[in-house]
From TrEMBL:
Keywords per UniProt: Coiled coil
Residue ranges that the Swiss-Prot or TrEMBL entry lists as coiled coil: 88-115
Protein name: Zinc finger GRF-type domain-containing protein
Keyword Coiled coil on entry: yes
Organism encoding this protein: Brassica oleracea var. oleracea
Amino acid sequence: MTHPHEEYMHMKELKKYNNMLGCIADAHYEIPTRCPYGGKIVDEISPGKKFPSDFNTHPGRKYFTCANFEDDGLHFRQPWVFAIQDEVKGLLKHVDEMAAEITELKDELKRVRTLQ
């Protein structure tokens, strides 16, 4: 039987790990600039399939990858396409907001000109 203090410390480590996984899952939007662990993000191109039956790693597929990447779920290796799609969605939202603002300003300018 383990000591209660050891169990408590183990529980705290697991809780910290689970909280970090949640933060990383939430951070997978748009183009990453840094890994949550502080690592630099590099552009990576997969050289080829690891196994003949491997359909997940297409040759030439682009990724945003943490420079210190380890396959433990705590570092980034985000497909380039998903990051660009998220970035474009965000930019389109900004364009729509700016178009609405321009329309409002045009209407206001017309009102001012009719008053003169």
